[in-house]
Protein backbone atom coordinates (compact mmCIF):
# COMPACT_ATOMS: atom_id res chain seq x y z
CA UNK A 1 0.00 0.00 0.00
CA UNK A 2 1.52 3.33 -1.04
CA UNK A 3 -0.82 5.44 1.14
CA UNK A 4 0.51 4.47 4.57
CA UNK A 5 3.74 4.77 6.51
CA UNK A 6 5.22 1.32 7.22
CA UNK A 7 5.44 0.02 10.77
CA UNK A 8 7.93 -2.37 12.39
CA UNK A 9 5.80 -5.34 11.29
CA UNK A 10 5.64 -4.37 7.60
CA UNK A 11 7.80 -5.72 4.79
CA UNK A 12 8.55 -2.92 2.34
CA UNK A 13 9.29 -3.18 -1.39
CA UNK A 14 10.84 -0.12 -3.05
CA UNK A 15 9.54 -0.41 -6.59
CA UNK A 16 11.41 0.49 -9.74
CA UNK A 17 11.62 4.24 -10.36
CA UNK A 18 10.98 5.20 -6.71
CA UNK A 19 13.27 6.72 -4.12
CA UNK A 20 12.10 6.89 -0.51
CA UNK A 21 13.52 9.61 1.73
CA UNK A 22 13.38 8.84 5.47
CA UNK A 23 12.74 12.18 7.20
CA UNK A 24 11.65 10.91 10.64
CA UNK A 25 12.48 7.84 12.70
CA UNK A 26 11.07 4.82 10.86
CA UNK A 27 10.90 1.05 11.13
CA UNK A 28 10.11 -1.96 8.95
CA UNK A 29 10.36 -5.74 9.30
CA UNK A 30 12.37 -5.97 6.05
CA UNK A 31 13.09 -3.98 2.90
CA UNK A 32 13.60 -5.11 -0.70
CA UNK A 33 14.88 -2.84 -3.47
CA UNK A 34 13.45 -4.53 -6.58
CA UNK A 35 15.46 -5.05 -9.75
CA UNK A 36 14.77 -1.71 -11.36
CA UNK A 37 13.63 -0.80 -14.82
CA UNK A 38 14.55 2.68 -13.59
CA UNK A 39 16.72 3.75 -10.64
CA UNK A 40 15.37 3.31 -7.11
CA UNK A 41 16.60 3.70 -3.57
CA UNK A 42 16.41 4.88 0.01
CA UNK A 43 17.89 8.11 1.42
CA UNK A 44 18.14 8.52 5.21
CA UNK A 45 18.26 12.14 6.36
CA UNK A 46 20.89 13.43 8.82
CA UNK A 47 20.45 12.16 12.36
CA UNK A 48 17.41 10.06 11.44
CA UNK A 49 17.16 6.35 12.38
CA UNK A 50 15.83 3.61 10.12
CA UNK A 51 15.39 0.37 12.12
CA UNK A 52 14.80 -2.76 10.08
CA UNK A 53 13.64 -5.92 11.81
CA UNK A 54 13.41 -5.05 15.48
CA UNK A 55 15.49 -6.85 18.08
CA UNK A 56 16.55 -9.78 15.86
CA UNK A 57 17.21 -7.58 12.85
CA UNK A 58 15.60 -7.86 9.44
CA UNK A 59 17.20 -7.75 6.02
CA UNK A 60 17.67 -5.07 3.41
CA UNK A 61 17.89 -6.93 0.11
CA UNK A 62 18.98 -5.51 -3.22
CA UNK A 63 17.55 -7.57 -6.08
CA UNK A 64 20.12 -7.29 -8.85
CA UNK A 65 19.26 -5.50 -12.07
CA UNK A 66 19.56 -7.00 -15.53
CA UNK A 67 19.55 -3.45 -16.94
CA UNK A 68 21.71 -0.33 -16.65
CA UNK A 69 19.76 1.19 -13.72
CA UNK A 70 21.00 1.60 -10.16
CA UNK A 71 19.60 0.80 -6.71
CA UNK A 72 21.03 2.82 -3.81
CA UNK A 73 20.84 2.92 -0.03
CA UNK A 74 22.21 6.31 1.05
CA UNK A 75 22.66 6.34 4.83
CA UNK A 76 24.63 9.60 4.67
CA UNK A 77 24.84 11.00 8.19
CA UNK A 78 21.78 9.02 9.28
CA UNK A 79 21.54 5.84 11.34
CA UNK A 80 20.70 2.39 9.98
CA UNK A 81 20.01 -0.55 12.27
CA UNK A 82 19.23 -3.93 10.70
CA UNK A 83 20.05 -7.62 10.70
CA UNK A 84 21.85 -7.79 7.39
CA UNK A 85 22.34 -6.08 4.05
CA UNK A 86 22.49 -8.23 0.92
CA UNK A 87 24.04 -6.20 -1.92
CA UNK A 88 23.38 -8.24 -5.03
CA UNK A 89 23.94 -7.22 -8.62
CA UNK A 90 22.34 -8.85 -11.64
CA UNK A 91 23.80 -9.50 -15.04
CA UNK A 92 23.23 -5.97 -16.36
CA UNK A 93 25.29 -2.80 -16.20
CA UNK A 94 23.38 -1.33 -13.23
CA UNK A 95 24.88 -1.05 -9.76
CA UNK A 96 23.68 -1.85 -6.24
CA UNK A 97 25.31 0.65 -3.91
CA UNK A 98 25.34 1.52 -0.21
CA UNK A 99 26.87 4.86 0.84
CA UNK A 100 27.68 6.09 4.35
CA UNK A 101 28.62 9.69 5.13
CA UNK A 102 30.94 11.42 7.56
CA UNK A 103 29.10 10.75 10.82
CA UNK A 104 26.54 8.12 9.81
CA UNK A 105 26.36 4.64 11.30
CA UNK A 106 25.32 1.21 10.12
CA UNK A 107 24.78 -1.36 12.87
CA UNK A 108 23.97 -4.93 11.84
CA UNK A 109 23.25 -7.89 14.09
CA UNK A 110 24.35 -10.17 11.26
CA UNK A 111 26.22 -9.67 7.97
CA UNK A 112 26.92 -7.53 4.95
CA UNK A 113 26.84 -9.87 1.96
CA UNK A 114 28.06 -8.93 -1.52
CA UNK A 115 27.17 -10.95 -4.59
CA UNK A 116 26.86 -10.22 -8.24
CA UNK A 117 28.13 -10.28 -11.77
CA UNK A 118 31.25 -8.24 -10.93
CA UNK A 119 32.68 -6.77 -7.73
CA UNK A 120 32.34 -3.26 -9.19
CA UNK A 121 28.55 -3.66 -9.41
CA UNK A 122 27.97 -4.30 -5.68
CA UNK A 123 29.54 -1.50 -3.62
CA UNK A 124 29.74 -0.04 -0.12
CA UNK A 125 31.38 3.37 0.11
CA UNK A 126 32.17 5.38 3.25
CA UNK A 127 32.76 9.02 2.33
CA UNK A 128 34.11 10.09 5.72
CA UNK A 129 34.53 8.70 9.23
CA UNK A 130 31.22 6.80 9.34
CA UNK A 131 31.09 3.65 11.42
CA UNK A 132 29.94 0.16 10.48
CA UNK A 133 29.34 -2.58 13.07
CA UNK A 134 28.64 -6.19 12.09
CA UNK A 135 27.59 -9.03 14.38
CA UNK A 136 28.54 -11.71 11.86
CA UNK A 137 30.36 -11.48 8.50
CA UNK A 138 31.62 -8.73 6.21
CA UNK A 139 31.98 -10.80 3.06
CA UNK A 140 34.17 -10.51 -0.02
CA UNK A 141 32.67 -10.25 -3.49
CA UNK A 142 31.92 -6.55 -3.80
CA UNK A 143 33.84 -3.29 -3.75
CA UNK A 144 34.49 -1.62 -0.39
CA UNK A 145 35.91 1.88 0.08
CA UNK A 146 36.22 2.52 3.81
CA UNK A 147 36.98 6.26 3.82
CA UNK A 148 38.35 7.27 7.22
CA UNK A 149 35.75 5.15 9.04
CA UNK A 150 35.91 2.19 11.38
CA UNK A 151 34.56 -1.31 10.83
CA UNK A 152 33.75 -3.06 14.11
CA UNK A 153 33.29 -6.81 14.50
CA UNK A 154 31.18 -7.37 17.62
CA UNK A 155 29.88 -10.92 17.27
CA UNK A 156 29.91 -13.77 19.73
CA UNK A 157 31.12 -16.50 17.37
CA UNK A 158 33.24 -16.96 14.26
CA UNK A 159 33.20 -13.90 11.99
CA UNK A 160 34.60 -13.51 8.47
CA UNK A 161 36.47 -10.37 7.36
CA UNK A 162 36.29 -9.81 3.59
CA UNK A 163 39.44 -9.40 1.53
CA UNK A 164 39.52 -5.58 1.34
CA UNK A 165 41.57 -2.58 2.41
CA UNK A 166 40.16 -1.07 5.61
CA UNK A 167 40.91 2.19 7.40
CA UNK A 168 40.33 1.27 11.07
CA UNK A 169 39.17 -2.13 12.33
CA UNK A 170 37.97 -2.86 15.86
CA UNK A 171 37.57 -6.47 16.97
CA UNK A 172 35.16 -6.51 19.87
CA UNK A 173 34.15 -10.15 19.52
CA UNK A 174 33.17 -11.79 22.81
CA UNK A 175 35.10 -14.89 21.70
CA UNK A 176 38.44 -13.16 20.92
CA UNK A 177 40.59 -14.30 18.06
CA UNK A 178 37.89 -15.73 15.85
CA UNK A 179 37.57 -13.00 13.24
CA UNK A 180 39.00 -14.76 10.20
CA UNK A 181 40.20 -13.01 7.02
CA UNK A 182 38.68 -14.38 3.81
CA UNK A 183 41.83 -13.48 1.87
CA UNK A 184 44.43 -10.72 1.86
CA UNK A 185 43.39 -7.90 4.22
CA UNK A 186 45.06 -4.50 4.60
CA UNK A 187 44.39 -2.16 7.52
CA UNK A 188 45.85 1.30 6.86
CA UNK A 189 44.79 2.77 10.22
CA UNK A 190 44.35 1.19 13.63
CA UNK A 191 43.65 -2.47 14.30
What general form does the structure show? globular
Number of strands: 22
Rg (C-alpha, Å): 16 Å
Percentage of helical residues?
A: under 10%
What would you call the structural class? mainly beta
Describe the structure.
The protein has 191 residues and is mainly beta. 0% of the residues lie in helices and 45% in strands. It contains no helices and 22 strands. It has strands at 11-14, 19-22, 26-28, 30-33, 40-44, 49-52, 59-62, 71-76, 79-82, 84-88, 96-100, 105-108, 112-115, 122-126, 131-134, 143-145, 150-153, 159-161, 165-166, 168-171, 179-181, 186-187. It has a seven-stranded parallel β-sheet with strand order 3-6-9-12-15-17-20, with no helix packed on it. The protein has a six-stranded parallel β-sheet with strand order 2-5-8-11-14-16, with no helix packed on it. It has a five-stranded parallel β-sheet with strand order 1-4-7-10-13, with no helix packed on it. The relative contact order is 0.12.
Amino acid sequence: NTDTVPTASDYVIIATGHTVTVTAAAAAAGITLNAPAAGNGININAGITLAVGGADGGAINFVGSATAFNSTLAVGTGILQAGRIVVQEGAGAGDSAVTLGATGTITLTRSIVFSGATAADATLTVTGAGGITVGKDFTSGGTFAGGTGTLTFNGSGVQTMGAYTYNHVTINNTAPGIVTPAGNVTVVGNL
